[in-house]
Amino acid sequence: MSLLRQLALLAAFIPAFFVVPNLAAESLDGDIVVLRALDKVTARTKDLFVPIDETIRFGNLTIRPRKCLKKPPEEPPETSTFLEIEEVNEGEEPVRLFSGWMFASSPAINALEHPVYDVWVIDCSISAASASEDKE
């Protein structure tokens, strides 16, 4: 069997959830990331509005969004955010728990794995000034 035929058969069996869409091609950059955080011990949830490259604290986590992309309204909805999450305990060095992309439509693909906290992406806000810059 030729290599080309083998690759074609292999591609036919790869599930769709392994294919990551090209989000950067048509996505708009956001200014503020909207996250939802859960403290599993107290069952407390909180919506966090975090500007890009700023840090917010939830419990003993520090969360810093680096990039937020949102598909335009005429495209299928998708919001993706690059996050850096660290656990900070007094008297200890911060421990990096998560560094990567989270997707609003598929929170289980790249999730924060922590025994006490869950964090997931809800939305990406785009200011009017930022949206007008993207149109130019």
Low-pLDDT residue spans: none
Measured between the Cα atoms of the first and last residue, the distance is: 51 Å
Mean pLDDT reading: 82
Shape verdict: globular
The major β-sheet equals:
5 strands, antiparallel
The total beta strand count reads 8
Order of helices and strands: HEEEEEEEEH
Structural notes for this entry:
By secondary structure, the protein is mostly beta strands. The protein has one domain. It has two helices and eight strands. Strands 1, 4, 5, 6 and 7 form a five-stranded antiparallel sheet that branches. Strands 3-2-8 form a three-stranded antiparallel sheet, with no helix packed on it. The chain is globular. It starts with a helix and ends with a helix. The model has no long low-confidence stretch (mean pLDDT 82).
List the helices and strands and how they pair.
Layout: H1 3-13, E1 28-29, E2 32-39, E3 44-51, E4 56-58, E5 61-70, E6 79-87, E7 95-103, E8 117-125, H2 128-135
Antiparallel strand pairs: 1-5, 2-3, 2-8, 4-5, 5-6, 6-7
Question: How would you summarize this macromolecular structure in one to three sentences?
Answer:
With 136 residues, the protein is mainly beta. Helix content is 14%, strand content 43%. Strands 1, 4, 5, 6 and 7 form a 5-stranded antiparallel β-sheet that branches. A 3-stranded antiparallel β-sheet has the order 3-2-8, with no helix packed on it.
Highlighted features:
mainly beta, 136 residues, 43% strand, three-stranded antiparallel sheet
